[in-house]
Write a structure and sequence with these properties.
Elements lengths: L2 H19 L1 E8 L2 H8 L1 H7 L3 E8 L1 H13 L7 E5 L2 H7 L20 H6 L1 E2 L2 E2 L2 E6 L1 E6 H6 L10 H11 L20 H11 L16 H17 L9 H9 L5 E5 L3 H4 L11 E5 L14 E6 L7 H11 L2 H11 L10 H4 L2 H6 L3 H10 L23 H16 L5 H18 L5
Parallel strand pairs: 1-2, 1-3
Antiparallel strand pairs: 3-10, 4-5, 6-10, 7-8, 7-9
Helix pairs in contact: 8-10, 18-19
């Protein structure tokens, strides 16, 4: 064997040994655009951390929640990092299902996290998840269609105006629906929107004694408004549409309005992805006339470490990278400032480059500042949460009610029947869980 062959063989052996000794992180995440982009940039992390490899498990939102919840509750150890919401974080942390993030590094700047977001991810002063992006909800609308119809979006629109405008700009011949709203069943899918809608109508899930409120006039008015609007001005097949499906419809120019997460603003305004990028306007989530509530939607997708993971140190390294100011700058350098993950850091909204590139930055921050999940409704309630109820039982109950309401949009049930069934189901579940004596 000559020297050159020996050296090449030795180098290959070292490389293989290094790869064999690398720690592999298994990360479960949702199939949203920002997370897909993060996967594409993972090589930047592994380049700087050659002793760590990453395997991705990318799932649709409802499937992700089901699999992660099952695994973490059983201490299955299938995942080293999970993508979860601010609904799960405090509940799971109190169950000791998550590890505290106390090794993010001196340069992480945890104090730069927006207070409302950081507070929702902390228990007893300890951070149990790091926010990848944060959001409220707002209206995204086609300015050209509004102008053509002689409409002007108010600074603080009411649902009455939205209903009238949606019907007016609907053009079935041109395949344009006046409005696109979530209809896919799930506590974090259609019930995120419908719960916020009900809040803005003055309704609530439970009264002060945990009695379900689906038999009250606010729920009837909210659900009837939603069902009628989707029938008159919504797209076909709306009962199967969640965030991603409506995003696609809007980007293709098939929706006049879309009420959903503020994080979508960068996607509908990106000319590489959206055919209507230069035609989009933004407004705060509507309220019902006479009711001062804009839904109080506040959400963040976060990275957390299950207590069953044996790779906490490596996992914290990845989380620190993916949720850092440096990661934001990396995305900006690759995709432009308008495409960076929003809604987590104060410094982003003080960044002049971001404000210049992202016309939605101001409306997004205003929507997040307007949301108060500690007071989600106009009437007193025993729970917190805007588009969700922050109790463990809500995940199952919210999905069951979501299926009932999705059936209404599909034309398989009536509003009255769905509300009657929701009231019975919620009363049974809350009694079994001990909330109702």
């Amino acid at each position: 064997m000559n020297l050159k062959t020996f050296l090449l063989g030795a180098c290959s052996a070292v490389a293989l040994c290094g790869f064999a000794n690398a720690e592999t992180l298994t990360i479960a995440t949702v199939n949203n655009s920002d997370m897909i982009r993060m996967q594409g940039l993972t090589s930047e992390f592994t380049k700087a951390n050659p002793d760590i490899q990453v395997e991705w498990v990318t799932l649709e939102e409802n499937v992700l929640r089901e699999r992660v919840t099952t695994d973490i509750a059983a201490s299955g150890g299938q995942y080293d990092i999970v993508t979860i919401g601010n609904y799960e974080v405090p509940i799971w942390a109190k169950q000791q299902w998550l590890l505290p993030l106390d090794g993010l590094g001196d340069n992480y700047d945890v104090d730069d996290l927006l207070p409302a977001i950081r507070g929702g991810l902390s228990v007893d002063g300890k951070l149990y998840a790091a926010p990848f992006y944060g959001e409220s909800a707002m209206i995204m609308y086609r300015k050209d269609l509004f102008e053509k119809a002689g409409l002007t979006m108010p600074d603080s629109p009411t649902w009455e105006f939205i209903g009238e405008a949606a019907r007016k700009i609907t053009d079935r011949n041109a395949d344009i629906s006046g409005i696109c709203l979530r209809g896919k069943a799930g506590w974090g899918e259609n019930m995120a929107f419908v719960s916020a809608l009900n809040n803005s109508f003055g309704g609530r899930w439970f009264d002060e004694n945990w009695k379900p409120q689906f038999d009250q006039p606010e729920w009837k008015a909210a659900l009837q408004f939603y069902a009628d609007l989707m029938k008159d001005a919504g797209p076909s097949g709306a009962s199967s549409n969640g965030f991603n499906e409506n995003l696609t419809l809007f980007q293709q120019g098939k929706c006049g309005m879309w009420m959903d997460a503020t994080v979508a603003a960068s996607m509908v305004s990106n000319p590489k992805e959206s055919t209507v990028a230069d035609k989009v306007g933004y407004a705060i989530f509507p309220s019902k006339e006479g009711v001062n509530n804009h839904g109080n939607w506040l959400w963040s997708w976060n990275l957390a470490i299950p207590a069953s993971s044996q790779k906490a140190e490596a996992a914290q390294k990845f989380i620190a990278w993916a949720t850092s100011k440096d990661y934001t700058a990396l995305v900006a350098s690759k995709e432009g400032w308008a495409s960076v993950p929003p809604g987590t850091r104060t410094s982003l909204y003080n960044n002049e480059e971001y404000k210049k590139a992202a016309p939605f930055a101001g409306p997004t921050l205003a929507a997040m500042d307007a949301a108060d999940i500690t007071k989600p409704t106009v009437k007193p309630v025993p729970y917190t949460g805007g588009q969700f109820v922050a109790i463990p039982e809500f995940q199952a109950l919210g999905t069951t009610v979501g299926q009932l309401f999705s059936a209404v949009i599909a034309g398989q049930s009536t509003v009255d029947d769905a509300l009657t069934a929701a009231q019975a189901t919620a009363t049974r579940d809350m009694t079994r869980a001990g909330y109702i004596k």
